[in-house]
């Protein structure tokens, strides 16, 4: 007997409901939401996401880089990944859209979307020129000390490639053969009470009568 294969839309909907449930439970415990992307069998955090639950610690299943993360906007305090980004291809040709797609850029855009303002993304990725970059036959992308700069505003051409927003680069260094990077989603700037009025909004001007009355009141108070 043939079994019906669940549609991708149905799976995404189920994942999102499960994500909402997990986040609600985490917040009820008074914890911050920490997500491990490509968690494998060594999840670091309270939500693990991978392409399968089989032989992994994944709580949610997602084809990372090829579909949206099953998480609400601005819902995550911290995202981590280790030995994961190098397994994503830099580009592929989509028959559906008849154009190149960039899974790493798409994933970084999704990471920005789900992080809360001030939230961080931390990654450990094998880095050029170390042999570990090329030794594993499943590694599909090469990373350098300048790779994260494309997501932090140094190279403006990244906007043409599809990078939607800039992170703040908190830390970027070698850790053995790994590129260790910490990126932060900026908090919105605080409103300055002394800032000039916005364009199109007029600042009220006291009437001559009110000004004269104020002057007379001040003069009388001094007598």
List keywords for this structure.
alpha/beta; Rossmann fold; 223 residues; two-stranded antiparallel sheet; seven-stranded mixed sheet; 25% helix; 9 strands; disordered C terminus; disordered N terminus
The CA-CA distance between the termini, in Å, is 102 Å
Query: What's the β-strand tally?
Result: 9
Structural class: alpha/beta
Q: Briefly, what CATH class? A: Alpha Beta
- For the record, the CATH architecture stands as 3-Layer(aba) Sandwich
The CATH topology turns out to be Rossmann fold
Shape: globular
* Amount of beta strand: 15-25%
Order of helix and strand elements from N to C terminus? HEEEEEEHEHHEEH
Largest sheet: 7 strands, mixed
Give the fraction of residues assigned to helices: 10-25%
**Low-pLDDT regions:** 1-8, 200-204, 206-223
Treating each run of at least 4 consecutive H or I residues as one helix, how many helices? 5
Question: Mean of residue pLDDT?
Answer: 87
